[in-house]
Amino acid sequence: MVQLINRSLAKVKQAMGLATINLKSFPHRAIASSVSILSIACVAAVILSVLAMTQGMVKTLEKTGLDDTLIVMRAGAISELQSVMFPAEVNILANHAQVLKNNDNQAMVSAEMFVNAQMLYLDKAGETHIEKLALRGISKGTYRFRPHFKMAAGVKFKTGIRQVIIGQAIARKIPELTVGSTITLGGAQWFVSGIFSDNNSVFESELWADIGMIQSDYQRGNTIQSVRLALKKNTDITALNKEWQDDPRLNLRIMYEKQFFASQAEDLTRLIRWVGFPVAFIMALGAMVAALNTMYATIASRSKEIATHKAIGFSGVAICFSILFEALLIALVGGLLGILPLYFIFDGWTASTQDANNLSQMLFNFELTVGLMMQTLLFSISIGLLGGILPAIKAMSLPVTVALRDN
Amino acid sequence: MQNNNQKKVAIELININKSYQKGSNKVVVHDNFNLSIAKGEFVALMGPSGLGKSTLLNLIGGLDLPTSGSVIIDNQRIDTLSEGKLSTWRAENIGFVFQSHHLLPVLTAQGNVELPLLLTALNSKQRKQHASLALRLVGMEERAKHLPKELSGGQEQRVAIARAIVSDPKIILCDEPTGNLDRKTADEILTLLTTLNKYFGKTIVMVTHDLRASEYASRVINLEKYIHDSKQNQLSAVEVNS
């Protein structure tokens, strides 16, 4: 055992010695290695972007919705936009015994409108811009279901007039939207009375206004799209669902709000991963081939040097590891080159995506966490390892007599 | 008496057969070849190209393996050793000097000479001391900090010799060590090898085409004649026995 450890340590010492020598001659191969370095950098940048986007999106959607709140929509609707509900249905739900009542003995219910609105605004130069945004019509009861809601600037909108408050993610993205500015929604002018925050949830990507005004401006009559309900603690949700499914007056789908947004997050991240990861995978293959080529070329140009090392007495294993070390170094440099600029430029940057279900923009932050950067770096190193392993084996088994004779 | 003789043998090649495949043809390099070299000998292997002089050197140095037969160095059979053990054995027992010296261009003379010492248990300071001593022995102490490209051909070969002797191997194998050098420089290198042989007791086997180089050796083996004579002796032995 002691002999085995000693032998292994000797091999490590040999490999480190050779790796140091390789490092000294690395500048001579820097240009040849730059293709591999750049390929790996591109892969690292793409992978990290996809990871950061998904992470940012998941975090945003995770912060949205409450565990104990039930969201009710029309049966078959997978998003609020697809749902239509009538006041009669809201009344039936509100009068259920399991729905919590407030101090005034009123049911804790929030009926909400959701419109994929086209918003027009003017920039400082007076040019008109158009954005597709989620416009949510809410009532006073809605605030009870948004415990993290805070006014960041200005005041809440007044009911009965065209006033709107905007989420702070939108305000960050469109600096022209300030308190006191005017926007056009559904062909009418709306006054921005305030900017709100909601713990970086998806609601910060929305515009909120009086539900009555939206119903009127968007000609929705008295229909709404979703209802939030606060339930008593002992509520058997399965039984409640069965009861409402059996009620001929209702045609509904119920689920916890948290669960609803989690499933939306899942859909979105799946979409990004389906697009992002195959691209990254193909690029990774390309980078691996580039690394493979570089290392083969390195070995070809250094065959005499490697043969001399073997003749002197360096073991094949030590030579193999020294070549792998160089491949890993290339991958490390490439990985860092892809990660660091992304970190310095895009960390915390607000990106937007179109929510496939609601067809409006969802704003979220790029989350370049240490964990994601480490994952990306490890992936880059794996590319180097895979690209370097075959050339390293070739170097290990290089026939000394042929390499030394070959001129 | 027999024991004393056995002790004196440094290199023994017994019934060596070496062949390799070239396309569909089998090329026989050595056929039942035998050679014995005593400790402290300076042997020059000569003869026309294609007779397998370098192959013999490679077999003795454990860089190549015979198709059949035994390679015994210092009473140890090396052709049966594993690749890893052979590397360790080579590091401890053999010093190589090549025609094209094969110094690492990114290392100074000192760095090149220190290279084999990475395979020993010596620490950095000790490695430096040993390398300096080896460079002093070959008269290159002044050039220790120079890169190979800053040295002349003869100086490079001196550094290569220093690298070959720095770990104090028993045997030095030289493949055309003066092949790329002018006469004067070649004589200096050969004198150096003679010094290592005479005063430091190194067994030296040198492959050369240079007749002058052979004058420095204690034994010259003309491989063509040697192989011919060996075959004759084998035939005679067969006839006597029959």
Can you put this structure into words, describing what you see?
The complex is a heterodimer of chains A (407) and B (242). Chain A starts with a helix and ends with a helix. The longest helix of chain A is centred in the first third of the chain and has 61 residues. The model of chain A has no long low-confidence stretch (mean pLDDT 85). Chain A has 407 residues and is of the alpha+beta class. Helix content of chain A is 52%, strand content 20%. Chain A contains ten helices and twelve strands. In chain A, strand 2 and strand 3 form a beta hairpin. Chain A is elongated and about 95 Å long. Chain A has a six-stranded mixed beta barrel. Chain A has a two-stranded antiparallel sheet with strand order 11-12. By secondary structure, chain B is an alpha/beta fold. Chain B has one domain: P-loop containing nucleotide triphosphate hydrolases (Rossmann fold), CATH 3.40.50. Chain B is 41% helix and 24% strand. Chain B is built from nine helices and nine strands. In chain B, strands 6-7-8-3-9 form a five-stranded parallel β-sheet, sandwiched between helices. In chain B, helix 5 crosses helix 6 and helix 6 runs parallel beside helix 7. Chain B starts with a helix and ends with a helix. The interface between A and B is medium-sized, with 26 and 27 residues. Chain A: Pfam families: FtsX, MacB_PCD. Chain A: One of its GO terms (molecular function) is transmembrane transporter activity. Chain A: It is found in: Cell membrane. Chain A: This is MacB-like periplasmic core domain containing protein. Chain A: It comes from Colwellia psychrerythraea (Vibrio psychroerythus).
